[in-house]
Amino acid sequence: MTTWIVLALLVALVVYVISIYNGLVALRNRVRNAFSQIDVQLQRRYDLIPNLVETARAFMQHERETLEAVIQARNAAKAAAGHAESDPSDGGAMRALIGAEAALGGALGRFFALAEAYPDLKANQNMAQLQEELASTENRIAFARQAYNDSVMSYNIKRESFPDGLIANTFGFRPAQQWQMENVEARENVKVSFDR
C-alpha cells in the first residue's frame, strides 16, 4: 500500500514537472512568434528605405552624407535583426538590435528634417507615398513591439516564479529581453511651439 502511495506521488510529481516544462516551452514559443511579427514589419521598413533614399537622391544631391548614413544605418539594423531573429531570447542580440534601430531612427529623423528644405521633394508623389507607407509601418512595428513585450513579460514571470524557476534553470530557459528604448530623449514628448 505504501509503495502505491509513493509511486502515485512520484507520478504526480513527474506530471507536474512536465506541465511546468511544457508551459515554459509554450511561452518561449509565444515570445519567438511575437518577435517574428516585429521582424516582418522591420523587413517591410528595410525594403521601403532604399526606395525612399533613391527617390530623394535626385532632389537632395548635396546631401550625399545623409543619404549614405540612412543606408548604412538600415544595413546595420537589418543585420542586427537577422541575428536577433535566430534567438530572440539572446539579450545581447536584442540589445544590439534595439541600438541599431535607435541609430536608424536617428538617421531617418535627420533625413526627414533635411527633406523639409526641398519643396520639390515634399511635393513628389512617390516621396509622399513612401512616407505614408513608412509611417504606417512604424505604427505596425509599435503594435508588434507591444505584443512582444507582453509575451516576454508573461514568459519571464513564469520563468522566475517558484517552483517554475527551478525547472526553467534546470532546463536552460534563459530570460527574454524586453524591447525598451535606450534613447531617453526619444521618450520625451515632442515640444510644439507656436511662437514666431
Written overview of the protein:
The protein is mostly helical and 196 residues long. The protein has one domain (26-179): LemA-like domain (de novo design (two linked rop proteins), Up-down Bundle). The protein is built from 7 helices and no strands. It has helices spanning 2-57, 64-86, 91-115, 119-123, 125-160, 164-170, 184-187. Helix 1 packs antiparallel against helix 2 (64-86). It is rod-shaped, with a radius of gyration of 23 Å. The relative contact order is 0.15.
User: Radius of gyration, Cα only, in angstroms?
Assistant: 23 Å
Strand content: under 5%
In the CATH scheme, what's the topology name?
A: de novo design (two linked rop proteins)
Largest sheet at a glance? none
Fold blueprint:
Elements: H1 2-57, H2 64-86, H3 91-115, H4 119-123, H5 125-160, H6 164-170, H7 184-187
Helix pairs in contact: 1-2, 1-5, 2-3
Short précis:
The chain is mainly α.
Descriptors:
196 residues, de novo design (two linked rop proteins), rod-shaped, mainly alpha, 0% strand
